[in-house]
Write a structure and sequence with these properties.
This protein is α+β, with helices and mostly antiparallel strands. The chain is built from 25 helices and 24 strands. The strands form six sheets. Strands 12, 13, 14, 15, 16, 17 and 18 form a seven-stranded antiparallel β-sheet that branches. The chain has a five-stranded mixed β-sheet with strand order 2-11-10-3-9. The structure holds 2-(butylsulfanyl)adenosine. The site of 2-(butylsulfanyl)adenosine has 15 residues, from strand 3, strand 8 and strand 11.
Length: 685
């Protein structure tokens, strides 16, 4: 490819990718598959790497991230970032309307919008390009998070249409419930502290140092306020309509209202309908539409007089705090949990609430027997949001965070920058040992379904297992006849379970079957801190065997795109411990998969059959994912491309191949082969 051709192709790819981004993330109407998108993106990234001088600062390649910001620069806002005064009753809204009408002349029209519960952001565009993204900060100056914001797919990096030369647009960075759950599931599988709600998760994500990690969080952004000099509109509603045309994601749930009744209707409608939204809102915002009238009304020191927020009441109840438990997880993280006098709250009886960490206990100034406010927001676990200090009994003891592990007595430690305290006694603290064993047998790890939490606990209590390799030493006589008594919560009676023939047989068979679980899941099952499912998979594919991983150094580890410093140090720490080395060796002797079979190993070339061949894979295939087929193409020296051109050697077609590709292949006379033919082709040599 000549320099000129590369220039043209980069431009073409960038435009295509931005359009696909817009289709997917703003319109929610993708027209190509994720795979095809990734292929275009890979091609662009490769070309920009080859011709760095052709890389556009607003290139969609920036969306995958990769820059590291050690400290976010503090920058003064061009227009201070004000907030809104909050109201909680319809009467307060009526008062607002009366105040507005008193101060201005003529008809008044309001715009009612949703109040997003996310993180405020101000985006500056010049000549149609995103040049800066600032957080609110203290309202006067905020943090420059531009590189991280560029990874948010619904934020346009370049605009379309007739936009003003320079302006700022403000909105809210948020996470959908679905994405929030995914992040927390990943964190759970890595043994990390969970985020309490989508807002905290969004705000934490925005401040991460590595923008590649931000990209993976899947943040979204809704915009609601345009600022600039001499904007060519007369009112707020028109500005949003135009901004939508330039490519911004602007809510469809906006209403023009003329009367107090209209506003109340909007508020009441969304109080119910908000439960169906895929993200959290905490109220609605009511804004005077006309810019002229907004100017007439002006601002107070803190907020505009032309807008007001109506906040929905979170569903909450007041109850008494009985005690606080400190739970120790498999990684040693200690989570405080409040035991409450049972109280009915939005459909369920609440007895326990998470207190998250020591800082939260301190900021609530919690005392035993306090009357606390319990709230159930978007999240499933209720939380304590406040304390009624007036009802506190004189002399009641403050709740303090423990300094020693409640299970083993070890002094707790806290790492810099982390909210959680840990029990460092990972070797002999019972819940940590049990937690690691439970993780080992869990569904996504070794998947030994015949053993559950209860059975693991019994085997541990009887001194039969303390580490995964002990499971593979169990024999019939160890298990047969084991008994456990427990209290049945339904009738309060004590019950007994005992291991008879069938149970024992199932357990032993389940353990035996787990020896076929592939290496990547064995690696995940080991429970190395910060190594989740995805990281384990990547590491297994890259290194191919436990021995190679064990001997890898810091440099090689952090050289991998998916591995950061935290993960790398955790791997090094794990394999520095002789006990872990010994246990891994034992597991290997016991027959667990400690390497990947040759055919799934990545790159090393297996043949040169496809050398100089450019292959397009299209459609779906039985028994193979596209990624696997792509890997096979590469292993045989071929190159994968996403679009059919005169340079394509052949198309490997599965079911449901796109009609566009078929047509193009026919015009260019490009051979189409099926999976069978392909497999034969690579085996012939
Ligand atoms: S307009 C000068 N519209 O709530 C007024 N704000 O407490 C600019 N928010 O600072 C804000 N949804 O962070 C506006 N539809 C919406 C909003 C919204 C959420 C946030 C924003 C604002 C805060 C007000």
């Amino acid at each position: 490819m000549t320099f000129e051709e590369a220039h043209i192709r980069i431009k073409d790819l960038s435009e295509q990718l931005e359009q696909h981004n817009y289709n997917y993330y703003v319109l929610s109407q993708p027209v190509i598959s994720d795979y095809e998108f990734d292929m275009l993106m890979n091609e662009l990234i490769a070309l920009e790497k080859q011709y760095p001088e052709l890389a556009d600062p607003s290139s969609p390649a920036n969306r995958v991230g990769g820059t590291v910001t050690k400290e976010f620069r503090s920058v003064k806002h061009k227009y201070p970032m004000l907030s809104l005064s909050n109201t909680y009753t319809e009467e307060e809204i009526n008062e607002f309307d009366r105040r507005v009408r008193k101060l201005i002349s003529g008809e008044v029209e309001y715009v009612c919008e949703l109040k997003y519960d996310g993180v405020a952001i101000g985006l500056t565009y010049q000549e149609g390009r995103l040049i800066q993204a600032l957080t609110r900060g203290d309202g006067v100056q905020g943090d420059d998070v531009t590189r991280n914001v560029m990874t948010v797919r619904s934020i346009p990096l370049k605009l379309k249409g007739d936009y003003p030369r320079e302006f700022e647009i403000r909105g809210e960075i948020l996470l959908t419930h679905k994405q929030f759950r995914k992040i927390n599931e990943d964190r759970e599988s890595m043994g990390e502290m969970l985020f309490a709600n989508p807002r905290n998760a969004a705000s934490g994500s925005l401040k991460m140092q590595n923008s590649a990690e931000v990209a993976r969080r899947g943040l979204d952004c809704s915009l609601y306020y345009l600022l600039g000099e001499n904007l060519p509109f007369e009112n707020h509603f028109d500005s949003l309509t135009k901004a939508r045309e330039w490519g911004f994601k602007i809510s469809d749930h906006i209403s023009l209202c003329r009367t107090q009744g209209d506003i109340h209707e909007f508020i009441q409608y969304w109080d119910k309908a908000r439960r169906e939204l895929p993200f959290d809102i905490d109220g609605v915002v009511i804004k005077v539409n006309s810019y002229r009238q907004q100017e007439e009304l002006g601002y107070t020191a803190k907020s505009p007089r032309w807008a007001i927020a109506y906040k929905y009441k979170a569903e909450e109840a007041v109850t008494r705090l009985l005690s606080v438990d400190h739970q120790v997880g498999r990684t040693g993280a200690v989570t405080p949990v409040a035991n409450l006098e049972p109280v009915f709250l939005s459909g369920t009886t609440v007895k326990r609430a998470s207190l998250h960490n020591a800082d939260i206990i301190a900021s609530l100034d919690l005392h035993y027997n306090d009357f606390v406010i319990v709230e159930k927001g978007g999240e499933i676990i209720p939380k304590i949001t406040g304390v009624d200090g007036k009802l506190r009994k004189a002399g009641s003891e403050p709740v303090t965070f423990i300094s020693r592990c409640p299970e083993c007595g070890e002094i707790l430690v806290r790492q810099d920058g982390e909210a959680a305290y840990y029990c460092p006694n990972s070797k002999s603290c019972p819940p940590q040992i049990k937690g690691k064993l439970e993780h080992f047998i869990s569904r996504k790890a070794m998947d030994i379904q015949s053993l559950g939490e209860g059975k693991i606990e019994l085997l541990f209590d009887k001194g039969l297992i303390t580490r995964p390799s002990d499971l593979y030493k169990l024999v019939f006589t160890d298990l047969h006849g084991l008994e456990k008594e427990y209290d049945n919560p339904e009738d309060g009676k004590t019950k007994k379970i005992s291991f008879r023939d069938k149970t024992v047989y199932n357990i032993l068979q389940g353990i035996e079957a787990s020896k076929n679980i592939p290496f990547e899941r064995v690696l995940f099952a080991l429970g190395i801190r910060h190594i989740g499912e995805t990281a384990a998979k990547k590491l297994a594919r890259h290194f191919g065997s436990i021995e190679k991983l064990m001997t890898a150094g810091m440099e090689e580890l952090i050289g991998l795109p998916e591995v950061g410093e935290k993960m790398a140090s955790s791997i090094l720490d794990y394999f520095r411990d002789p006990e872990n080395i010994e246990m891994v060796a034992e597991l290997k002797t016991q027959g667990l998969q400690m390497h990947i079979p040759d055919e799934t190993k990545s790159p090393p070339t297996r043949s040169k059959t496809l050398e100089e061949k450019s292959v397009v894979i299209s459609g779906v295939f039985e028994g193979y994912s596209r990624e696997q087929l792509q890997e096979i193409v590469e292993q045989h020296g071929g190159k994968n491309t996403s679009s059919v051109s005169s340079k394509t050697s052949f198309i490997l077609a599965g079911d449901k191949m796109g009609p566009g590709k078929l047509e193009k292949a026919a015009t260019l006379n490009i051979p189409i082969i099926n999976l069978q033919e392909f497999l034969e082709m690579i085996q012939e040599k």
